[in-house]
Amino acid sequence: MAHRKKLVIKLTAGADAPERCSQAFTVASVAAASGVEVSLWLTGESAWFALPGRAAAFELPHSAPLPDLVAAVQATGTLTLCTQCAARRDITEEDVIEGVRIAGAQVFVSEIMPEGVQALVY
Questions:
Q1: What is the pTM of this model?
Q2: Contact 38, 78 (CB under 8 A)
Q3: Under 8 Å CB-to-CB from 103, ≥6 apart: which residues?
Q4: Pairwise CA distance, residues 49 & 79, whole Å
Q5: Which of 11, 44, 51, 62 is most buried, by the most CB atoms less than 10 A from its CB?
Q6: Contact at 8 Å (CB) between 55 and 96?
Q7: Greatest pairwise CA separation for the chain in angstroms
């Protein structure tokens, strides 16, 4: 049986670096649409995109709308908010959009270590 490839993306930028942010969401959504198992981690300033309405407020010319990209990732993949990043911003599990999990470095490491996993950091 063929092993399904997995892509783990850690996004460290938010609206403070819009092109880097958009690239991570775009690559994640294209991979998900291609049948790749995707896990997208929101860290640093991207943590805010775990909150309702924040993706809709993000605008970057010539890029797909962020809510569409978030939905594409969530349709088949996992969207995770970094535990420490959430705590530093007073974001709790009650605050985040449906389907976002909050997890820490131990879970991230367990996702990136298996054979056949590609990890990218934006």
A1: 0.94
A2: yes
A3: 80, 81, 82, 83
A4: 10
A5: 11
A6: no
A7: 44
